[in-house]
Design a protein that fits this description.
Elements lengths: L1 H38 L7 H4 L3 H27 L30 H5 L1 H8 L1 H32 L6 H4 L3 H27 L21
Helix pairs in contact: 3-6, 3-8
Length: 218
């Protein structure tokens, strides 16, 4: 067990952080949503009902959407684009290990590498495809949650409900998306640039403390 935690500590830590913060979001979001319902003349809902509400679905997936977009684009763009001096970039004028073609004879090579053909082609791009697919799923669920939340509010006000075709042109959905996207792009920009000049000893995301500023990669 000790070895398992040592080998998987990073993923376990972030899974625990994810679970804890998701619970916090649910509890405080549930309380906040009921406050809104009361102020708008509605009735308090149960926690189980809240988990199916547009308020929860929208607030959850608009964040997931931006995270997967950020990671997916970062994976794809770092194939072609480089940043001199950044620990987040490949080296400027040389090929790296990640650029070479896979060797099916390599010891413990994953089975798609040994299989070859279409399976290997798909596997070679599986990380970016998975992240962008998760982005697309999250985007759709964000849209669904946002539309549902909007219609729940309109229903309380006795107004005409939004349709899919009308809501996709609604500024609310796009505002929710762009406000999250811009923050994700800013955070990537920050780590790319700051890692040129700043260090964190012991971190895989930093260059060695004594590395020259213009040395690219870790």
């Amino acid at each position: 067990m000790k070895t398992y935690f040592r080998n998987n500590g990073l993923s376990i830590c972030f899974l625990i952080l994810f679970g804890g913060t998701l619970i916090g979001q649910i509890l405080f979001g549930f309380e906040e949503h009921n406050k809104e319902l009361i102020s708008e003349g509605g009735k308090i809902i149960s926690l189980s009902s809240y988990l199916l509400s547009g308020h929860f679905i929208e607030s959850t997936f608009e964040n997931w959407e931006s995270e997967f977009l950020q990671m997916g684009l970062f994976v794809v763009l770092t194939i072609f684009l480089k940043q001199k001096g950044s620990s987040e970039s490949k080296k400027i004028n040389q090929k790296e290990e990640v650029d070479r073609e896979p060797d099916p004879n390599r010891k413990n090579a994953p089975w798609p590498v040994k299989k070859g053909g279409f399976i290997l082609t798909l596997y070679k791009h599986s990380l970016s495809v998975s992240l962008l697919l998760l982005f697309l799923i999250s985007l759709i669920l964000h849209f669904y949650g946002s539309l549902k939340d909007e219609n729940e509010k309109l229903l309380l006000e006795g107004k005409q409900l939004e349709t899919i075709s009308s809501f996709i042109k609604n500024s609310r959905f796009w505002f929710e998306s762009f406000q999250n996207w811009q923050s994700e792009f800013l955070s990537v920009f920050a780590i790319v640039i700051l890692s040129i000049y700043l260090r964190q000893i012991g971190s895989s995301q930093s260059k060695p403390v004594d590395a020259p500023n213009m040395e690219t990669g870790v």
